[in-house]
Structures are given as structure tokens and as C-alpha cells.
């Protein structure tokens, strides 16, 4: 019997997992390698992976692989397991629900948990106006539905997205997404009536928020025409695009322009939502009230769920039967969302996100003072990034960034990169991580940068 055939007892996940970085093999170890070999033979090549392991358990601030390696988790499966993997409240809620019923289709036989998620979203999203919500499966699906709703409400077709935007991988959301490789390359033709406007990117454009907004608005008015625009879609802080925090006043000016011109302002809070930035939603950092808010990722702590929430008169523009889907608002995902929301509220996780942000920011800005390759440190709460540049030219250094990220992973620290130039390392730890693990993860990053 080879080592990979020997039975292994996977540890139970959740916060009771030993909270430590522990490497017992190089990565991947033999058991993980066996799974990755089968992946190469069975799974389409287009589905890549960042960390060369086969995960068997996760919780608190660690991910454990099939060989018994324990990695520090600074990614949360891309900002999803915000309340911690295998969170006990989520596990209990899903376990109870799965034994009752797994699916009826909400459009056939409705159930209470879906309604309760809609009520929670209507309560928690910015603004105290009358709201409605609809539930879907993925972030991209929810963005598409927000655009459908805005078009129906306005009777207009054009949709404006921004430089560096990421909104998903379906046909319409590929059109909204800015970056060609890997998201769009060879996958066209893309959906029509999508237009791109310049963003506010203070580290590079040095523009004030109002100046950057005026630049974008002029371009929209000249190239599209305000009266043709159904919706402006924007991430309040861009995720895949590089954790770009717009200059103060940029989003506010866009919201005002939308109000004045009958355009629906859609905030894509798929990555920024649900306690991640130290507020329920990143829009709150800028004092804006979007017409529609799109959520997914952190909404249900890992179960697939997404939502569109917004002004009742806009949301109700779609005729009965016009919105939905077989699985949208699946009961397992809905009870997980309610348990995750309880956890954010009862465990003080918004405050914890702010603390994590303060720790990450102080360590990374100290590093920036010592090392000019760290060009910029930015973000809010547990959504912080460092942008790497060539100190001689100020140009993005994607190659350095990739080397540093690879070295961190090899040392048992899961980090993710982002940015149009791939020169940003982003930190998205679960809010259940300890300060000790966070600090150890940053120690590893500092050594990796020193060696790179
Ligand atoms: C991840 C993401 C999406 C797409 O969500 P999926 O669930 O992968 O379809 C959309 N918008 C933003 C801002 C995202 O980060």
C-alpha cells in the first residue's frame, strides 16, 4: 500500500483546530500531490489553483492539508469565510436544515429562511428607505440581475463599468470586467452596451476625488450620453483590480450624478461586504447610499449565495416571474447566511475586522518605510493590500510580487495577489484569526520580501 492509499482521519474543522503554522512536508506533500495529479488528469486545465495542497479541514485562521500541513489563512477562500471556516453556528444551522429539506425551489414552494435573509439584507444595507431583495447563487449572477433590474426600471440599455473592475466570469460580467488575461482572453464576443470609464486610483493618478469623478462623468456624457445610461456599476473598493480605494469624494460625486440623471447606482459589494472592511458594507466608509447593493462571498460563510438589495421601486420594476433561478436562495445557504449574520453581530466581528486592519496597516507601513519596493499600503479593515513597484522607475513589479507570494505559500502562509499588473498582495484573513497567526504570517512575508 502506498502512503497515499493509507487511510487518514481528517481532523474536524472549525475553531477547535490547532491554531499553528506547521509544515511536515514540502508543498505539495505526497497525499496532496496524488490529488493534484488526479486533478490534472480529470479537471479542465482552465480551472487553476494557487496553493499546491489538497485541503481536508479549515477553521480559525488555518487550512490543513491531506499530509497534515497547517497553513496560515490570509485569504479566506477569496473573502468568503469571513466568520471562519466551519463556523460552529453555521455548521449547526446547516446540519439541522439538511435533515429537514434540501430544496423545494423558492419559486415553487417558498420557505421562511429566504424571507429572513431578505429582511436582514434590507435592514443591514446602507440607507433607511423602503427596500426589497432577491437571492441568487454567485456574485456574477447577482451582478447580472442587478443590471437586468436597472434596465427594466429605466427603460435604458447602457451600463458603465470602470477601469480595473472585476464583476465575474459570465458573458455579461466578463464584459463588465476590465482585465483581459485570464478572465476574458479568447472568450468573446462580449455582451453589448457596456462602456468603461476611468477610476480614481490616487496612488497613480494623484487626482482628488472630485477631479477624478469629473473626468469619468465627462467621458460618460461625451461617449455614451447620460440619457442612455441605465446603470453605473462599481466596487466601492476594488477587489481583484488591486484593492483600490478611491479618493474622498469620488463615489459621492458619481452617486450625485446618477441621482441627477435618473441612472441606477449599483455598488458591487461582493468582496467588500459583510463585516470585511470593519463596516457591514464598504459604501459606509464613503457615506454613500447606493440604489442597488450586490452581495455574495461573505454573505453565507462559504455556502453559495448572493443577493441584490435595493430601493423597492427599482427592485419591483421587474415583472413577477422575471427574476429567479432553480437554486437561488437555497435553504442550506439561507440558514448559513442567518447564522453568519448572527456571528458578525454577536461576536463583535466588525470591531475585530477594524483591529485586524490596524495590525496589518501598522506592520505593512513600517515595512514600507524600510523597503521602497512597497509602494503603497491601502484598504480598510480586514481588506488590506500592499502594492509593489520598482523603486527606480515607480513601475508596477508583478514579477517580484509573484516571487514573494510563491515564497509565502511555500512557507505555509496563504496569500493572494491581485491588480491589473499582478503587483499587489492582498490580505483577507478570516475574522477569527488570532493576532499571533497574523503576526507570524507577516513575519514570513517580510522574510520572503527580504530574500526576493
Ligand atoms: C468575486 C467577485 C464577483 C464574482 O463573484 P462569483 O461568486 O465568483 O461569481 C463579482 N464582483 C466582485 C467585486 C467580486 O469580488
From TrEMBL:
Pathway: Amino-acid degradation; 4-aminobutanoate degradation. GO terms for biological process: gamma-aminobutyric acid metabolic process. Its EC number is 2.6.1.19, 2.6.1.22. Keywords: Aminotransferase, Pyridoxal phosphate, Transferase. PROSITE patterns: AA_TRANSFER_CLASS_3. It comes from the Bacteria. InterPro entries: 4NH2But_aminotransferase_bac (IPR004632), Aminotrans_3 (IPR005814), Aminotrans_3_PPA_site (IPR049704), Class-III_PLP-dep_AT (IPR050103), PyrdxlP-dep_Trfase (IPR015424), PyrdxlP-dep_Trfase_major (IPR015421), PyrdxlP-dep_Trfase_small (IPR015422). Signal peptide: none annotated. Its cofactor is pyridoxal 5'-phosphate. GO terms for molecular function: (S)-3-amino-2-methylpropionate transaminase activity; 4-aminobutyrate:2-oxoglutarate transaminase activity; 5-aminovalerate transaminase activity; identical protein binding; pyridoxal phosphate binding. The keyword Transferase applies. It catalyses: 4-aminobutanoate + 2-oxoglutarate = succinate semialdehyde + L-glutamate; (S)-3-amino-2-methylpropanoate + 2-oxoglutarate = 2-methyl-3-oxopropanoate + L-glutamate. Belongs to the class-III pyridoxal-phosphate-dependent aminotransferase family. This is 4-aminobutyrate aminotransferase. The lineage of its organism: Bacteria, Bacillati, Actinomycetota, Actinomycetes, Micrococcales. The gene is gabT.
Amino acid at each position: 500500500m502506498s502512503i497515499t492509499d493509507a487511510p487518514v482521519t481528517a481532523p474536524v474543522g472549525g475553531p477547535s483546530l490547532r491554531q499553528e503554522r506547521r509544515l511536515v512536508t514540502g508543498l505539495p506533500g505526497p497525499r496532496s500531490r496524488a490529488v493534484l495529479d488526479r486533478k490534472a488528469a480529470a479537471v479542465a486545465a482552465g480551472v487553476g489553483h494557487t496553493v499546491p495542497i489538497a485541503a481536508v479541514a479549515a477553521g480559525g485562521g488555518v487550512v490543513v492539508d491531506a499530509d497534515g500541513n497547517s497553513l496560515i489563512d490570509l485569504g479566506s477562500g477569496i473573502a468568503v469565510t469571513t466568520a471562519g471556516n466551519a463556523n460552529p453556528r453555521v455548521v449547526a444551522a446547516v446540519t439541522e436544515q439538511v435533515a429537514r429539506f434540501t430544496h423545494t425551489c423558492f419559486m415553487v414552494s417558498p420557505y421562511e429562511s429566504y424571507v429572513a435573509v431578505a429582511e436582514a439584507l434590507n435592514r443591514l444595507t446602507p440607507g433607511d428607505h423602503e427596500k426589497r431583495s432577491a437571492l441568487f447563487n454567485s456574485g456574477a449572477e447577482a451582478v447580472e440581475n442587478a443590471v437586468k433590474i436597472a434596465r427594466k426600471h429605466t427603460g435604458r440599455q447602457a451600463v458603465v463599468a470602470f477601469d480595473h473592475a472585476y464583476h465575474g466570469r459570465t458573458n455579461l460580467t466578463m464584459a463588465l470586467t476590465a482585465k483581459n488575461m485570464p478572465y476574458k482572453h479568447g472568450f468573446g464576443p462580449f455582451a453589448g452596451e457596456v462602456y468603461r470609464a476611468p477610476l480614481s486610483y490616487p496612488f497613480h493618478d494623484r487626482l482628488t476625488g472630485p477631479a477624478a469623478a469629473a473626468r469619468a462623468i465627462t467621458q460618460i456624457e461625451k461617449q455614451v450620453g447620460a440619457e442612455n445610461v441605465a446603470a453605473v456599476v462599481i466596487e466601492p473598493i476594488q477587489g481583484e483590480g488591486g484593492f483600490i480605494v478611491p479618493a474622498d469624494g469620488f463615489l459621492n460625486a458619481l452617486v450625485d450624478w446618477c441621482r441627477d440623471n435618473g441612472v441606477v447606482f449599483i455598488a458591487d459589494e461582493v468582496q467588500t461586504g459583510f463585516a470585511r472592511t470593519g463596516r457591514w458594507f464598504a459604501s459606509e466608509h464613503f457615506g454613500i447610499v447606493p440604489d442597488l447593493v450586490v452581495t455574495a462571498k461573505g454573505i453565507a460563510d462559504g455556502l453559495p449565495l448572493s443577493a441584490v438589495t435595493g430601493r423597492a421601486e427599482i427592485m419591483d420594476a421587474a415583472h413577477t416571474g422575471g427574476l429567479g433561478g432553480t437554486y437561488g436562495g437555497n435553504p442550506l445557504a439561507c440558514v448559513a447566511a442567518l447564522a453568519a449574520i448572527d456571528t458578525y453581530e454577536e461576536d463583535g466581528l466588525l470591531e475585530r475586522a477594524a483591529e485586524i486592519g490596524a495590525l496589518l496597516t501598522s506592520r505593512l507601513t513600517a515595512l514600507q518605510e524600510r523597503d521602497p519596493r512597497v509602494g503603497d499600503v491601502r484598504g480598510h479593515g480586514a481588506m488590506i493590500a500592499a502594492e509593489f513597484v520598482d523603486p527606480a522607475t515607480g513601475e508596477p513589479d508583478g514579477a517580484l510580487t509573484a516571487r514573494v507570494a510563491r515564497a509565502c505559500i511555500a512557507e505555509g502562509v496563504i496569500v493572494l495577489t491581485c491588480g491589473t499588473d499582478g503587483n499587489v498582495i492582498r490580505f483577507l484573513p478570516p475574522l477569527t484569526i488570532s493576532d499571533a497567526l497574523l503576526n507570524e504570517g507577516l513575519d514570513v512575508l517580510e522574510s520572503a520580501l527580504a530574500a526576493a
